[in-house]
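Readers of this paper often ask what the protein records in our data store actually look like. Below, we set out a record of this kind in full and without editing:
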Amino acid sequence: MAIRKSVEETLVVAGQRDEWLTRCAKGLMAAGFKDVQTSTVLGQVTGAYKTFSTNGELTITVVPSAQSGHTQLTLRSTAAVDNLFALFASPNKKILATAKASLE
């Protein structure tokens, strides 16, 4: 059984919640995430990230922000950290960086 750890990061962006749910799903698909699923009820977008050196999942929770016209994105990456590649670079940071780049 793999040892997994999680890293979470929060962003506040301009725009409406429903618009960001769609943008997140399209961005993850464009970035190479697999099994991308959107739950409008939960306000979440999930996707699996699998490469030779990195294996994990990303969940983006989208909620309206306290600021009018803004949305809060909470990105939570969970990845296996018990392999040789994780000694040199954090797989969670790689997944988060890939996801944030796809959302810009």
Q: What stands out?
A: The mean pLDDT is 88. Residues 17-30 form the longest helix (14 residues). The CA atoms of residues 53 and 84 lie 9 Å apart.
